Amino acid sequence: MIGQVVYFLRRALRNMLYSPVLSAASIFTVGVALALLAFFAIAVLNVQRLTASWAAELAVVAYLEQPPDGTVLNRWLSEIRAYPEVAEVTYVSRQEAYQRFKKRLGNDADLLDGLGADVLPASLEIRLKPEQREAMAAVVERLGRNKALGELHYGREWLERFEAFLLLLRTIGAALGGFLVLAALVIVANTIKLTLYARQDELEAMTMVGATALFIKLPYLIEGALQGLFGGMMALLVSFVAFRVILRESLGNILLLTGIDTIHFLPFAWQGLLVVAGALIGLLGSLLALRKFVRFCQD
Amino acid sequence: MIQLFNLTKAFQRDQNALSDVTLRVTKGEFVYLTGPSGAGKSTLLKMICCAERPTRGQILMDGRNITQLATRYIPHLRRNLGIVFQDFKLLNRRTVFENVAFPLEVQGRRRIEISKKVYNVLKQVGLEHRLSHNPLQLSGGEQQRVAVARALVVDPLVLLADEPTGNLDPDVTMDIMELFKGANARGTTIVMATHDRGLIRQFPRRVIALEAGRVVGDNQP
Questions:
Q1: DSSP per-residue letters across B193-205
Q2: Contacts with B111 from chain A: Cβ below 8 Å
Q3: DSSP strand E in chain A: where?
Q4: Minimal-distance CA residue of chain A relative to B111
Q5: Which sequence spans correspond to the domains of chain A?
Q6: pLDDT tens sequence for chain B (221 residues)
Q7: Nearest residue of B to residue A19 by CA position?
Q8: Min Cα–Cα distance to chain B from A230, Å
Q9: Fewer CB atoms inside 10 Å of the end CB: C or N, chain B?
Q10: What number is the ipTM of this complex?
């Protein structure tokens, strides 16, 4: 069994060495197609992380014109906590709001010099349970009945728009990816076809000495799978280098502004998937090419 | 060994490559198929090894009807046949040794057995010193001897040869014929297509003459 595997593997590798240019073309095509897909996946994954973190932070903020006294505040807090959709309610005093703002300004905090904490309103931050995000409008409407709560701010619409953008990004990625994978498939199939045309006499001789279809096809299938595998590995390497050199900087600069601290490369499972996808593209390409090549009999 | 009944092959509607061919080749026989180009010699050989399907008629090989043999069984049939072509059909990217070893590899024989058999058959055809060469480094005669070695290495029941000496000079032709005679003496049935009358005179055997797809003569020497 092992001897046979080695035999077929050796024949596949030898086939590749006989036509190095064609093999390199296949590997390169699969590599480029999958590298582009990987770029998209990196962008989508990181933007997805961003929206997930935003969604977790999504809150209704009620700006209070006047800070309430302790009894009123406690009444409001317990009332709001009793809402089934609400996970947490926090009171942010003027002083706390001022400190937060100062911290956010960082080096520019001196802009606030001369201003007191009373320039900022106190507020109530109401976070919903993650599964209750859809109920935000209802919660806002209920809160709005208490006129003393003043202006109510929430970012749901904006988040929804962003999620729609993410969906668009994913769709474009999938469409472009599908197109590229298909192109890679056709090119691999044609490359194998070219080698088969060049070896038609050889294939005929093989059928004449009693080789079965599988015996003849297997090295070509392995050849395609190996080319795809190498292409997948190339895509992984290229996308990793591109990630380190370009993507982390450019995508990082955009996403860092929005509060994401680090940009991540593809998770390990996805890296494996990329290489396996390469091998599958190669295998399928060879299968397509071999369909009509090995003929035992002119019917 | 081989029985053909009313074998007909039509490539085009009104033009038969073979018409109603009925003949019988017994085990261990050496038969020439002769006739001008287009007489149907190659088509007949192709039908015996199932490379072509007959339009009508039946083919029996060693008592088994192979007329409509399912494609998946064709390789198994061919493992009992040795086939030699005019243009050798060697695997030019492989060495002489690998070419001759290939039919045995296909059958899943063990390496040690393959090495022994290949060496012996190459010795028999006088090419044991060329086993590491590629076919393209050999002369035409040597290439045909490799093709004969490849056909004989499996100890075939039947050897089909389609104009095997068509491209060879007279001396090499004699060498090839001696190899066929040797194989025939060891029990292999041989069906050889040729239009070389001189050859038939030199190595007289049963001659089946074809003309325009029909058997027009069947003569014992």
A1: E---HHHHHHS--
A2: 3
A3: 59-64, 86-92, 122-128, 151-153
A4: A3
A5: 2-54+159-290, 59-154
A6: 899 999 998 887 777 888 899 999 999 999 999 999 888 899 999 999 999 899 999 999 988 999 988 888 999 999 999 998 888 889 888 899 999 999 998 888 888 999 999 999 999 888 889 989 999 999 888 998 899 899 999 999 999 999 888 878 888 888 888 888 989 999 999 999 998 888 899 899 999 999 988 999 898 87
A7: B93
A8: 24
A9: C
A10: 0.84
